[in-house]
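$ ./design --mode recover --in tokens.txt
reading tokens...
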């Protein structure tokens, strides 16, 4: 059976990718789409992607085991179940890169990026709150798709806090020297 929800999701993802390309250009001081990293940052980022990949593999393997039995039904929609793997992978990749100094590129305008993170967190928080107030977060005892907005809110809050802590610790270490 044809589902318009899937079409809407696919269109939303495509629009999101196009917007991301435009926004990334605004983050970079030179106006280019490609963020520049030095050799050490590239090596660290490669390792971070590996950790993110294995995070997603382990998560999905665990979910396969948990959902293989007909007796165990997780109280979430399939979309929430699987998109959480994406969020977990992104969190691992970003966290590793932040703490290893490979998240902000050589040509990245950190201030603009921070503002963007705040806006994304606030937008997703608003969508999540609206879903809660309209009774759309839980339906028939299952966590519904708007929960993803709250996950994204949490992701961007964690990224923001990590970036602030990293900036603070780097500044403190520089002052010690």
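writing sequence...
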């Amino acid at each position: 059976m044809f589902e318009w929800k899937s079409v809407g999701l696919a269109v939303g993802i495509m629009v999101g990718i196009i917007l991301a390309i435009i926004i990334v250009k605004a983050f970079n001081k030179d106006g280019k789409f490609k963020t520049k990293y030095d050799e050490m940052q590239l090596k660290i980022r490669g390792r971070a992607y590996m950790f993110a990949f294995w995070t997603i593999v382990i998560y999905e393997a665990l979910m396969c085991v948990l959902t293989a039995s007909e007796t165990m039904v997780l109280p979430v929609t399939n979309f929430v179940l699987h998109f959480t793997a994406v969020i977990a992978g992104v969190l691992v990749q970003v966290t590793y890169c932040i703490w290893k100094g490979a998240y902000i590129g050589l040509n990245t305008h950190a201030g603009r990026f921070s503002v963007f993170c705040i806006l994304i967190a606030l937008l997703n928080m608003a969508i999540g709150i609206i879903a809660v107030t309209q009774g759309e977060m839980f339906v028939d005892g299952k966590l519904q798709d708007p929960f993803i907005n709250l996950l994204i809110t949490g992701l961007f809050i964690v990224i923001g806090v990590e970036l602030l802590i990293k900036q603070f610790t780097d500044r403190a270490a520089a002052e010690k020297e």
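exit 0
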